[in-house]
Every structure is written in structure tokens, then in C-alpha cells.
Amino acid sequence: TTFQDGGEEVEDGAVYNVTLKKVQIQQAANKGARWLGGEGDQLPPEHTVRQYETSKIRAIKAGTLEKLVENLLTAFGDADFSYISIFLATYRAFASPRAVLELLLDRFGNLETSSHGEVANLNSLESEMVLRVEIASVLRAWLDQCSEDFREPPDYMCLLKLLDYLKNNMPNSDMESRVQNLLKQFQNQEVETVDGFCSTSSSDLVDGEELEISNPEEFSSFQDHVVAEQLTYMDVMLFRRVVPYHCLGSIWSQRDKKENKNLAPTVRATITQFNAVTKCVISTILGTRELKIQQRAKIIEKWIHIAHECRILKNFSSLRAIISALQSNSIYRLKTTWMCVSKDILLMYEELSEIFSDHDNYLTSRELLMKEATSKFANLDSSEKENQKKSQKRLQLQKNKGVMQGTVPYLGTFLTDLIMLDTALQDYVEGGLINFEKRRREFEVIAQIKLLQSSCNSYCLIPDQKFIQWFRRQQHLTEEESYKLSREAEAAADTNVLSPKSQKSMVKRISTLFLGTDVFTSPKEQAPKSSPVGGSSGESTDSASVSSCEFNHSETEDVCVTPISSPEDPLKKISGYPLSSCSPDSSMSTPSSGVSPFPKGSIFDPGLGSDSGSIPTRDLGSMLSSAPKVLPVYNRQSGGSCIIRVSMDGLHDSVYKSILITNQDRIPDVTQRALLKHNLEPDAVEDYELVQVISEDKELVFPRDANVFYGMNSHVNFDFILRKKA
What we know:
alpha+beta; Son of sevenless (SoS) protein, Chain S, domain 1; five-stranded antiparallel beta sheet; five-stranded mixed beta sheet; 26 helices; RGL1 protein
């Protein structure tokens, strides 16, 4: 089989990528061989005749909404077999379920009026049957893959409209029964609180229960593997409920608007759970003032063991939450406590931290996640012999149970990728057509989420109500409280207790995982300037990651963790994604090193074009489409475009938005885009000036009509401030 690029086909309201597929369909003997009675498959090539068939694969590249919906009915005929799945997974970025359903049923499904519309050639009874089958196929796929689209209490208008269509066109069919059952299911279900596991509000507690400071003895009574299993149970329940389209960059980035406070609830629930685990770790270590150094060290050791158990269970969400808590400033600065942690456990902690190394856009964790996504059990490797023995022993116990394990990812990686795609690729192309190539790229990420959700069905975990109730009762410390308790617990921590050698053995790369700064923290309460290990300046980026604290103006949500800060170089920002940012306007995180942050094999690898290098989710026709070879990235100008970060003057510098600019953009264009991103009036362009931050004491102020792309300083971070003119 060979493929050849067939260029583009342009129709009214649509643009298609065409690929020619040449397939051998027959190999027969030539005349002389047939006279001798030979068979084609038994003869050498010179005595055979091969017959080939060339077919055309059409993959829609851009189109109006009407054309995209119409293509649902013709995609199989065009050999674009993945189109329906891609459309259903991403259409919420540019249309509502009602709009799509009305087009599908009213415009194409109404056979009485379609004879003079888009399907004018479908006049015969046979053609009508074909159309009915095609519509039924699309509806069946919609119900299979995205039934949540029809959850519209209390009226359920879309479901009722669909039911009415089925009664008229497919009476007494299986699909009619299915829609009726789905409607009853939605109507009977009570309103579910997807974050019930990790909420700490008094309304979620059983009568008579109160929030309490962690009791070290009660926490120590839970076995390490039990804690890991229960955290995994909670993570699995929440991750399986994640609605994939909630993760799309165009949807998730809008969550900060007042009218969108209930947007993407399934993603918010995973964030709340992640933060609850992080805060639980900190409160168990610092919550009891009377603890001795050795007792506090034992609790740290216990959490490292629990993190290791999460690794065995392939729960990367709670694993990262625990590691991030241990690397927070209030815990990390406990120097004398860390000195009491055994060497073997410190090595285990170091290896677990290396999983989330920010090197090459978290290449290690990405490769490990994809490696273990479809494996039955964890693939454990340890450079330390004792840890290797313990790991293999625990893993063997898991295998002896005979139950396969799923994989719970750190969702923030996918959220960040999707927002990067949303920033880098345009929603519409020339002629106002919807850019469906962008949706194909987004689907590559969505497909990975769906694959991991499917793998979670392999878990067989039983809830332990005793632990879950204990977990929910924990009173979380604010950042100010945890830092104050940390200073009390480590009164002599400011002296040089640890030698450089012991620092290195404690954590080889402490900079692998940091937490973002908190909006409300005053400078006086920030981490001390001299950190035990040279880290990065704490920068809570425009984070799409699951690790960002959700902001709802409540005290319980104001708890975040301050990262270790370094006075060495204010421009050496953290080149990863924040693990906790309480900024109300945070929406995405981007690396900030001058080098390309995207690993080889990722969807942003400039050398790969449109191939993701991970899970193949696209048919060959769409893979051969003319997608852009290089996507714009942060901190690097390439192909006449780049991504900059713009924050508002007067707000915390960690609250910024990512803006795509090209070499054609001037100050008014960029300013208007930045105002829109920050949910401000775009008409006020004349009232603002754009400033690039060169260093702590230097700024570059742009003239009114300057070209931002050519005028900016490309040798420093692409960080800008939008400031009201004096």
C-alpha cells in the first residue's frame, strides 16, 4: 500500500485534504504461466500480473458548522473513519449540542423536505434508507461516546427532541428504548457532588463530626499501602468522571469568568482532590506543635512510603501531590528534620521526584505514563538495591492478587498541552471557516485521556470508610499558618546545619517540582531569601494544570504552598508547571527556558509536524494532512510567531495569560487580545501601554504603533505587563 498527497479540494463552505491510496487487490499469472497451469502466488514476479486500485481519502480541513455536521454522514464514504469520534470529542469548542442536533435532525434528517436541500439526490426509497442508517449510526456513536452532552436538567430539551425524532422515524427501535432509559436515568439521579471525597466544608461532614488537626497516632495507625489504595480509589472515581471536552483549552481557559463558576466541574473536582492530598501531607507534618524532630521525620518517611505505594499502583496524581507537598517551602525548610530521615528513604524520595523532572517538558513522566498506560502492572526500576528489593516484593504481592491495574495520570499535563494547542492554533481560517485541523490535534490529547480512563476500569479497590472519614475531617493549614508552624518547629533552621554533601544526598534535583506562589501572601511572609538548595523563583504560571488551587473566595480555598525561591537570578524562572496557584486568573502554564520546552515525540515537537509520537489515534488520511510543521512556543521566535505572557499591572505577577503573536501584530492588536484574555473591555486599548520586563529594574516600553514581534527583546523571558497610562 502506498500513499500520495492529492492536494486540497475546495467546496462551498469546506476545504478538504486529499490523499490517494494505492492498494494491490490481485496478483494473477500472465498468459504464458496460465498456459503452463501456474498459479500467481506460486510464481516469480516476472511471471505474474499485479492489479492495483487507487482510492481517494478526503479529510475535512476546515468548514462551516453545516458542512462539518453534513460530513458526519459522509465521512465513512470519504474513508475518514475517525472523523465522527474527533467531532464528538471536540465540537463543544465551537457549537452547542442543540445546534448540532438541530442541524442533524432538521436539516438532514427531515426526509420530507430534504429533496430540495443539501441531499437533493436522495429521492429514492433506497437512498432514504441509506440516509436514515447514516443518521442512526451518528446518533448511536453520540450516545455511546458523549451521553453527558444530553444532561440538561431540568428540561432535557435535546433528549426530548431526539426521542421525538426516533418515534417518528425509527419507532420501537433499540435506540428509542435506550434514549427513554437515559432520560429516566437523568431524571432520577440526584444532583451529584463530584468533589464529595475531598471537600472539607462542614456541610459535607456527618452529623457530630468536626474538622480537626491531624492526630499523629491516628495517622500512623493506617498502613502505608492502605492509605495509597484509598487515595487511588478516590482519584480513580474522580478521573473516570472527567468529561473529556471539559479539558479543551478553549473551555478550561474560560473558567475564571464570573458566569462560568460552574464550568468544567469534573476537572475542578480532580484539582480539589489533588490540593486536598497536598494539604493533608502538610497538616500531618506540621499540625501538631508538640512533635519531636524524630517523630516529624517518621511522618515524612511514612508519606514517602505512601508515595512509593502510589507508584506501585500507578497513581501518578496522588504521587505528584505528595511529592509537591514535601518539596513545598514549609516542609523543605525543616533541615534538622530531614537530617533524621534515613538515607534509603531519601534515595527513594529522590527517585520518585525524578519522575516529575521538568527536563524537556516533563519527558520522563510523559514517557513513563504512556509506557504504563496499557501495562498490567507498574514497571519499577531503582538504582538502589534495597529499594529495588522492596519494590519488587510489593509488586509481586499485587501480581499474586491476579487483578490488573489501571493508570491514574496527573491531569495537569494534558490540560497544559490542550491550552498550548488552543493558544498556538487559530479557531477560524480564511473565509471564517472552522479550523478542524486544530480539533484533530486536540483529539490526539483527548484520546490519551480516554485511553487512561478506560484503563481505570481494571482497578478493584474497596473504600475504607474509616480512612475516608479521617481524610475528610482534616483541617487544612493556610500557607501563612504552615510557614509559621514550620519556623516554630525549626527554630534553628536558619543556621547552616547541612553540609553541601548532605544536601546533595537529600535531594539531587529539588527543582523538579515546585508549587506556585499564593496571591494573598505578603512579602514578609514569603520564604526566606536563602534557600537550602538553589531552586527557582516561585512563579505561579498561567496554569492549566490540575495542581492549581481553585479560587472561590473562601478561606478553605486560600490554602496554597509557597515554593522555594532563589535570589540568584530573577530571570531564571521555573521551567515547569506550578503545582499550586491560587491566582483567580491563572489559566495555563508554559515553560520559561529559552530552549524549546517540547520533547521529541510530543505533539509540540517541531520535527514531527502533526504526529504525536505516542498513541496513534488518527487514521492515515488525517495524519497526512497539511498540518503546520512548527507550532509557536514560549520564549522562542520561530516561523514568524511566538507566545508571550501578559500580566496586568497591579495584580500579582503570577497571574498572566498566554498570547500568540505574529510578526504582523502591532501594539493595539496585542493589547486588545490581552484585555480580552483578562476579561476586560477590549475597547480601552488607548488607556494601556505594553511593557516587556527585562530584569527586576529594567523595562522596555513600546511606542503606540510598534511591531511587538520585532521590537521585543528576544534574549530574555517573553514576559509582558499591561499597564494603565498615567
